[in-house]
Amino acid sequence: MNHHLIAPSILSANFLDLRKDVEMLDNSEADWIHLDIMDGVFVPNISFGFPVINSLQYITDKPLDVHLMIVQPEKFVLEVARVGAYVMNVHYEACVHLHRVIEEIKKAGMKAAVTLNPHTPIALLEDILHELDMVLLMSVNPGFGGQHFIDHSIKKVSALKEMIVKKNLSTLIEVDGGINLETGKRLINAGADVLVAGNFVFSSENPIETIHRLKSL
Q1: Which of 11, 37, 58, 98 has the fewest CB atoms within 10 Å, i.e. is most exposed?
Q2: CA pair distance 103, 81, nearest whole angstrom
């Protein structure tokens, strides 16, 4: 039985016809819609902001998985909640007072997730893991879609899964970057619960079929 979730990233969608792509996701087996917000400071790129997410919440019933690749994400907790986010993802590297930010995310009624860049060790989550609903591991350097998968991510997922099991937690592991059928299968075998796929879904000839294949791994 396949229990893993698929969260297509609309960073790779057609922004001139976003409604069409979101309707496609609604008709697919996608579980969540992943939204990458970038500020050009924390990552070397700028994507989209609240007006886009706000309009999305009215055209889809899929839960919105909002990933803030920005400095000072704590400034926007209430704003992310207001646009209907189900999960709010903040970067470990961007939060000096991570515990407080996690508390605020939960208080605002969202699931709390922490993202680690490829170079950030999972050991740093030791004292916060029990507070988290999910950990997002970046398997590429964040900022751009369509990048090459960093192979070390497989070991990282296994080690994090071990830590979660040892602590008897139900924290989900999400992975984002370079996901395809081959890397997706390896990640699920290693213990990943949620796969984020952008380019692989949206540049395929039949995105609905591609999502189905990812879901069937």
Answers
A1: 58
A2: 13
Angle, vertex CA 175, rays to CA 171 and CA 176, nearest 5: 140
CATH number at residue 22: 3.20.20.70
CA distance 57 to 53: 7
Cα–Cα distance, 29 to 42 (Å, whole number): 32
Tokens representing residue 77 in the block = 């907790």
Tokens 């992943």 sit on residue: 34
State the catalytic residues. 36, 176
What secondary structure letter does DSSP report for 196?
A: E
pTM exceeds 0.85 for this model? yes
Number of structural domains the chain divides into: 1
**Alpha helices per DSSP H over 83-152:** 98-107
Helices (H), 58-174: 77-82, 98-107, 153-166
